[in-house]
């Protein structure tokens, strides 16, 4: 197997969608000649978090083509029609997407914008994990995508977000996050572990035109209308979150659950850990 010599920085929530297997096209503005293994780097983390095999690069897509291939890149129709991704219409087609068991630190080269060469020691560490990974080893591979076919059929157009069960009226658990002292002091709860399960346009939705907001509720409290902070990955209405943590008598170690009741409608609750 060839070594992983190249790196690519990917923003959230796109890198989470790649590593979870929900997306296999990374939309960019260039058509590189390179084909082979690349290291996937979460923007701002300083870590190579996963790897993928860049097997092909398509030609720039029209808005209609992007809407029809939503299942490949996961960019909502709203963002496509609004021109927010007009610079990123070229599909980099990936296969064998895997998360590293132990992310590898790296130093970003000065001036590097898209694909860049990883330092030799970083390449060696990433490649070693790739060689050692086995599908039957827990945690070794988060998702492995079959190679894409050039003749693959076009996916159906985008439909409104929301788990099928939530659309049928049943609450769906999106994820859990452990309460920390920092959460209590600053009035927030981290959504990063399951951020990819929220609609993409809800991240930074307050700053869009028109705004994209969600309804968030909890037992015994008035609900709030909020989006998700794109920088810190928590519900932006921290005053409501602080009131929720206080009302719930939350302590470090408790677990916050977030359920989806319907598209853009959520309920949060507290689970006690080690206390009555």
Automatic annotation (TrEMBL):
Residues 10-88 form the ASCH domain. It comes from Amaricoccus solimangrovi. Pfam families: ASCH. This is ASCH domain-containing protein. InterPro entries: ASCH_domain, PUA-like_sf. It comes from the Bacteria. Transmembrane segments: none annotated.
């Amino acid at each position: 197997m060839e070594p992983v010599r190249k790196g690519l920085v990917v923003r959230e929530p796109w890198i989470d969608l790649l590593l979870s297997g929900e997306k296999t096209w990374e939309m960019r503005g260039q058509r590189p000649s390179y084909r082979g293994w690349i290291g996937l780097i979460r923007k701002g983390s300083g870590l190579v978090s996963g790897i993928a095999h860049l097997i092909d690069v398509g030609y720039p897509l029209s808005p209609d083509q992007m809407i029809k291939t939503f299942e490949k890149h996961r960019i909502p129709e709203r963002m496509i029609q609004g021109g927010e991704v007009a610079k990123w219409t070229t599909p980099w087609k990936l296969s064998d997407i895997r998360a590293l068991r132990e992310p590898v630190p790296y130093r970003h080269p000065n001036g590097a914008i898209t694909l860049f060469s990883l330092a030799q020691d970083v390449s060696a560490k990433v490649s070693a994990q790739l060689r050692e990974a086995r599908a039957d080893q827990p945690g070794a591979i988060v998702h492995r995508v079959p190679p894409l076919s050039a003749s693959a059929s076009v996916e159906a157009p985008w439909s409104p977000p929301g788990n099928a069960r939530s659309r049928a009226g049943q609450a769906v658990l999106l994820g859990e996050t452990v309460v920390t002292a920092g959460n209590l002091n600053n009035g927030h709860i981290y959504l990063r572990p399951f951020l990819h399960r929220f609609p993409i346009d809800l991240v930074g939705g307050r700053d869009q035109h028109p705004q994209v907001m969600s309804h968030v509720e909890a037992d015994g409290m008035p609900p709030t209308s909020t989006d998700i902070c794109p920088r810190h990955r928590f519900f932006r209405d921290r005053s409501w979150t602080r009131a929720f943590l206080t009302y719930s008598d939350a302590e470090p170690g408790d677990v916050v659950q977030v359920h989806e009741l319907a598209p853009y409608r959520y309920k949060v609750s507290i689970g006690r850990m080690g206390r009555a």
